[in-house]
Amino acid sequence: MFTIKIIPNDRSNPPGKLADAELHFVDVACECVLCEGAGQAAIQLARGDHRLDSCDGCHGTGRQSNPLAGLKLIGFGAPRRR
Hints:
Order of helices and strands: EEEEEEE
Strand content: over 45%
Structural class: mainly beta
Largest sheet: 3 strands, antiparallel
Number of domains: 2
C-alpha cells in the first residue's frame, strides 16, 4: 500500500513544471492470501493426502506486511501541456 503526495511547484523552477509527486510506501498488515489468516496451509503430499504446516507466505502469523514499507519514490514531475 502506498500514499501519493502532490507538492505544487510555487517557484516555477523549472519553467512549465506544475508539481512534484512522491510515493510513500506504508506498512499495512493484512490477512495472508495464501492461508486466509489461519497461519497454517495444507501441504499436498506425493501419495495424495495432505497435512497442515506453517504457511510460507506469512510464516505462521496469519498476517502479511509490505516489504517496501518505509521507502519513498521521489522525482516525479507533472509538466504543463505543450
